[in-house]
């Protein structure tokens, strides 16, 4: 059976590509990413994929034909940068907010059987709720029948609450069925993956310290997944170095507490209710961003060690395997992680896509 060819737009480090790369029926033939360091990170993890490191506006029909060398793209995946849509940002209708039109333009050139367009939940309420119907109308205009659903990565074994709008378009009848949750609190579901289960095997660290040794065995399903490569040494497990006052703040917090629970003499005068806040050891993480190593940002303080999170821990909370590579400065690596589609969510989507395509 011939494989289905996949192209990934706005590819980032390849979180969405991950799921498709793990299923034999798919062959990722090309990817596009504008940021050079991020494109290099993608190439480290997907060396067989042709990377187009350029603005999506530079993907002309000629350039795409040259890159694909006669291959037809069956599945187009990707989502424009989410900063314009995020409820944490300024939510401006700027050039980035209209990048879906570039996605549409590439769709018109490639004419894939199906596409997956993903983005943050804030996309649904952007521009007073007017933007998402406009996006749907643009894609329907070129012949795609659409389905969309808000999926939460935590329901698919990711140790993090992370909602994403998944819009699927198909030429002809849309027979895609969204993956059913595998984790949760209902009958027949596995329990949510907690921080303790996701990062409890990593060694205890103090602020400013590092360790490349595992602190315990892979004793649960999630750890067996992220440690499947069998490596003996950790990479990127370095705790950011914070000042004495911030360390005192972090040590004063109990599990799940925030700045409002601090003694008045050390309580920060600025910040929102979930800043300077500890995560819960026995719950999944809240949504992480590129600022997951910054305690004055949204909730991200390590509940056991009372410190800022390491790059490896951020990657774990997104469900990246321990042998997944990131590239550039530490700030760039955190951006790569914070903006990614969680690999375990992409696996769930890709499995359902195989079923839909095989029915056709």
Summarize this structure briefly.
With 360 residues, the chain is of the alpha/beta class. Helix content is 28%, strand content 12%.
List keywords for this structure.
single chain; 360 residues; alpha/beta; Rossmann fold; seven-stranded mixed sheet; 11 helices; 7 strands; 28% helix; globular
Overview of this structure, please?
The structure is a single chain. The protein is of the alpha/beta class and 360 residues long. It has a domain at 4-184 and 341-359: 3-Layer(aba) Sandwich (Rossmann fold), CATH 3.40.50. It is 28% helix and 12% strand. It has helices at 15-21, 36-45, 61-68, 100-110, 131-141, 195-199, 221-226, 244-252, 311-317, 330-338, 343-359; strands spanning 4-9, 26-32, 50-52, 75-78, 114-120, 144-152, 163-171. Helix 4 (100-110) links the parallel strand 4 and strand 5 (114-120). 42% of the residues are buried. Residues 84-89 have low confidence and may be disordered.
Task: Map the helices and strands.
Blueprint: E1 4-9, H1 15-21, E2 26-32, H2 36-45, E3 50-52, H3 61-68, E4 75-78, H4 100-110, E5 114-120, H5 131-141, E6 144-152, E7 163-171, H6 195-199, H7 221-226, H8 244-252, H9 311-317, H10 330-338, H11 343-359
Parallel strand pairs: 1-2, 1-4, 2-3, 4-5
Antiparallel strand pairs: 5-7, 6-7
Helix pairs in contact: 1-11
Structural class: alpha/beta
Question: What are the secondary-structure elements, in order, as H or E?
Answer: EHEHEHEHEHEEHHHHHH
Radius of gyration: 21 Å
> Any idea of the CATH topology of one domain?
Rossmann fold
The largest beta-sheet arranges its strands as: 3-2-1-4-5-7-6
């Amino acid at each position: 059976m011939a494989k289905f060819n996949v192209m990934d737009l706005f590819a980032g480090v390849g979180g969405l590509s991950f799921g498709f790369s793990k299923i034999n029926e798919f062959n990722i033939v090309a990817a596009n990413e504008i940021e050079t360091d991020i494109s290099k990170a993608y190439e480290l993890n997907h060396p067989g994929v042709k990377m187009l490191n350029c603005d999506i506006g530079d993907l002309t029909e000629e350039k795409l034909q040259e890159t694909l060398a006669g291959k037809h793209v069956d599945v187009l995946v990707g989502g424009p940068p989410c900063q314009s849509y995020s409820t944490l940002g300024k939510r401006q209708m700027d050039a980035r907010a209209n990048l879906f039109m570039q996605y549409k333009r590439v769709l018109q050139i490639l004419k894939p059987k199906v596409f997956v367009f993903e983005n943050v939940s804030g996309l649904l309420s952007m521009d007073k709720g007017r933007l998402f119907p406009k996006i749907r109308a643009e894609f329907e205009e070129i012949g795609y029948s659409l389905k969309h659903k808000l999926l939460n990565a935590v329901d698919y074994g990711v140790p993090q609450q992370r909602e994403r709008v998944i819009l699927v378009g198909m030429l002809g009848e849309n027979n895609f069925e969204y993956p059913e949750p595998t984790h949760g609190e209902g009958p027949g579901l596995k329990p949510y993956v907690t921080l303790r289960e996701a990062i409890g095997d990593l060694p205890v660290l103090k602020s400013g310290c590092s360790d490349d040794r595992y602190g315990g065995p892979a004793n649960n399903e999630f750890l067996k997944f992220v440690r499947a490569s069998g490596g003996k040494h950790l990479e990127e497990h370095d705790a950011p170095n914070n000042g004495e006052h911030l360390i005192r703040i972090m040590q004063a917090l109990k599990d799940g507490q925030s700045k409002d629970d601090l003694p008045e003499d050390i309580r920060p005068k600025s910040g929102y209710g979930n800043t300077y806040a500890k995560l819960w050891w026995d719950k999944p993480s809240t949504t992480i961003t590129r600022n997951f190593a910054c305690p004055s940002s949204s909730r991200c303080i390590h509940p056991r060690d009372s410190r800022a999170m390491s790059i490896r821990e951020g990657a774990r909370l997104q469900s990246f395997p321990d042998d997944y590579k990131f590239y550039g400065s530490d700030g760039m690596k955190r951006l790569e992680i914070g903006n990614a589609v969680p690999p375990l969510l992409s696996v769930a989507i890709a499995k359902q896509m195989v079923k839909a395509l095989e029915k056709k």
